[in-house]
């Protein structure tokens, strides 16, 4: 008996688990125009999160009205219902000291998250204010926590982002412990550069949305010192300053100053 003729349609090859996973992957690039795309990017969500989970996250994210320069996003002591992703523009956070003065705690750039300060006591420990016209995505934290508990990838990344924010907060007292004013400014510029790189921007081109006064407050210096140090860094060829834009010309030298590898007087002689 002759063998049966081959079938005209070859049987489909079995689908591998990797192939199935690939089919479930959501192309976040197609969602860049939605508010949730910004929030998901800032949370560093793994690309393997499937469409159903992505839809659940999308449902949580709320886009708030734009904030004008000087507008307050939340105030110290207010209830803490949400995290906020800076979609565009930038913010500053500050606290009021017992004597009534204001201490700036940090600056928050596009793609970063603010609001972690209120997780412990369920009330904000600082005030967040727009440094320029800005827009934010709001993510209710209680709902985000429930979804994260059911989506392991999201939970892992949420903890990772929280840890990164807490580590960043520790950089401020470390910087303030440096006696040399130049070292403080170099650390500040290096941190901004690293954060620019983390959000996909040019790490050598820094647009300083904060005023020189705000910068001086944050660094524990006076505004005249800030202006003088920028002029000296530019004279030495480490940076180029054009109003509020700072171009880093010598990253290695700036890093050395941040690490305190050179004496200030020798470095700027």
Describe the 3D structure:
The protein is α+β, with helices and mostly antiparallel strands. Helices cover 42% and strands 18% of the residues. A 4-stranded antiparallel sheet has the order 1-8-3-6. Strand 10 (239-242) and strand 11 form a beta hairpin. Helix 6 (181-198) crosses helix 9. It is globular and about 55 Å long. The chain starts with 16 loop residues before the first helix and ends with a helix.
Helix-strand layout with pairing:
Blueprint: H1 17-24, H2 35-42, H3 51-60, E1 62-63, E2 72-74, E3 82-88, E4 91-96, E5 102-108, E6 113-114, E7 127-130, E8 135-140, H4 141-150, H5 152-176, H6 181-198, E9 205-207, H7 212-219, H8 223-235, E10 239-242, E11 245-248, H9 251-258, H10 264-267
Antiparallel strand pairs: 1-8, 2-7, 3-6, 3-8, 4-5, 4-7, 9-11, 10-11
Helix pairs in contact: 2-3, 4-5, 6-9, 7-8
User: What's the SSE pattern?
Assistant: HHHEEEEEEEEHHHEHHEEHH
Which geometry do the CA atoms define?
globular
Give the number of helices.
10
Largest sheet features? 4 strands, antiparallel
Write down the Rg. Answer: 24 Å
Question: Segments where pLDDT lies below 50 for 5+ residues?
Answer: 1-33, 261-269
Number of strands: 11
Query: Helical percent range?
Result: 40-55%
Global structural class = alpha+beta
Span between termini: 98 Å
Order the strands across the largest sheet as they lie in space.
1-8-3-6
β content, as a range? Answer: 15-25%
- Average pLDDT number: 79
